[in-house]
Records
---
Amino acid sequence: MQTSALRILSIITLVAAPLFAHGDHDQKPVAGPNGGRLITAVEPHAEFLVTPERKVRVTFVGDDGKPVATVGRSVKVTTGQRSAPTTLTFVESDGALLSEQTLPEGNNHPTVVVIRASADAKPVVERFNLNLADCGGCDRPEYACTCGH
Ligand SMILES: [Zn+2]
């Protein structure tokens, strides 16, 4: 009895895991220089990285892969459960923009990143699920995975 229940459970896990694993990969993220997710819809590109303190660090990156100044640029992130989203605001820190707040508890929250490359630029909006789990196929977290696993 117990054995068959376990077997069913493991079958469910095997079937369900790839569905979840592939949910983030409709658009394959590009590698950022610090191991984050590179948002290429904006010029210069912006790397979205979650720090060990669960803050978000956004580094603007030139075509040569080197960081560029944050002057005049702004980022706003909305994440968390849809019923109670958290807004992250950013301040300049060490040549990048660092969120003043930490990410809400939990994982795989729908996330909206709004970036203005300059004060009068049209905002660029990027949406993805922020999956912080480690990818099985590369060394990156799922939100920054580039292996398409
Ligand atoms: Zn991967």
Note: The first helix runs from residue 2 to 21.
---
Amino acid sequence: MLSHRIRTFIAAVIYVVFAIPCQAKDPITLMAHSTGPGQWVGHYAEPLNEQDLKPFVGQYLLTGQWPKGVNRPDDPKLLLGRQKLGATRVVAVKVEEGGHLVRLTTDPVVSPEVHQLTIGDVTLAVAFWGLSVKIGVVDQPDHGPKMVLPMLMDRKKLAEYAGFEPALKAVESAWIDPKQPLMMHGWLRLAEGEHELTFLSGREFTLEINGEKTGSKAAGGRYFASLKLESAGTEMELKVVLPATELPISETDFWEVTKPARKGSAASSQVLSMENFLVPWAPEAAPEATLAIAPPPYDLTGGDGVKGRQVFYSEAAKCANCHAVDGQGGKIGPDLTGLRGADRSLVFHHINAPSDRIHPGYPSFSVALKGGQVSMGVVRSVDALNLEIVDTDAKVLKVSSADVEELRPSTSSVMPSGLAGTLGEPAMRDLLEFLTVKPK
Ligand code: HEC
């Protein structure tokens, strides 16, 4: 479910708030949108004060390492790459275009709560929510351009942000030009209980909530669908399909969701808050809780730990190129000494299907360089200006951070898959004995 969402949808809306606790200044508020899972771009009309954001400027904060010479690397507050915004890991922050643009790179999976992190004098608060938008063929999720619709219910805001970003401009013109089909997708989260919602649009639409379809009705030159929803308090999948039509829509007509106004209010309805719309890849629960592991294909007990040690350090298995046990071995992946006492079937699963649960301290990235080259691997900062990319063969590529065009989190582990099959049953049993049992 989760990976399906990650694969299928690439865009949403977030707000990024840089609140600088300095009396003379007001907090800086950035609104940003996502251009893909884990990729967020914030725009700011006034240039950000580079001095305040100095720890961020032009720096990639990678896998727990703060670039040398920027700040005390032993200060845990500064290790943004190791810190999390709630369940979401921020791995890079970059300020571009003279302070007008902030790029945030996070885990591909974001958690929907608002999170805060203080680094030096700057507090970073991020809320991830919104709807993704796709223009073009609506039934083929991987076809055609996909983009974000920021401030879904705010026509003016969309126009403002469309000025910053050509892709948003495309969404805006697709909205105004009804000859273009549009699909909006996201997750709706309402408090437990019964809700009455009205969806309004300048264009005819079909609504799909948790798989149930409702068509829109025309009234007063607009289209609407009113429905009663019983919410369990968890997320409901929401799809809004706006097929192509020849009918023009008015410039002022936009998409809106309303609920009945509170008692005592003069208005009859109020707009549903943006916070009720979650990014498509927001997890329903903590990511750990959603994954089940397959039972191992054979009995994992009864191996020989001494032989297992040989397997671990062998050329065939290559484990020690990347992992250490008792201080001996590579540092590309986590130290495996801590696996003693661990559940064998879980360790087997890690070896057999590494991308299923990627260790949060070792996210992998696809790194696009300015020359067009793309590399995949664990990314580490050597110093303020240089990065190392370690690939699945444990080969190290050194690049200057100035040459990095884009850093994109990947859902594949750097650890090669299929090692369990290559090693075979007896060697795997020995290896598991070595990894999970403390030698006498
Ligand atoms: C090219 C480097 C590389 C090789 C070779 C490699 N691994 Fe890994 N391994 C990693 C990385 C990076 C991670 C962390 C990311 C992840 O969880 O997939 C990892 C994760 C793991 C984990 C999960 C640890 C945890 O705490 O979540 C286990 C267990 C593991 N490797 C065992 C092995 C064994 C056994 C071998 C040899 C048969 C091996 N690895 C070969 C890079 C490698």
Note: The pocket of heme C is lined by residues 317-319, 321-323, 332-334, 336, 347, 350-351, 354, 358-359, 362, 378, 392, 394, 413-416, 419, 431 (CB under 6 Å).
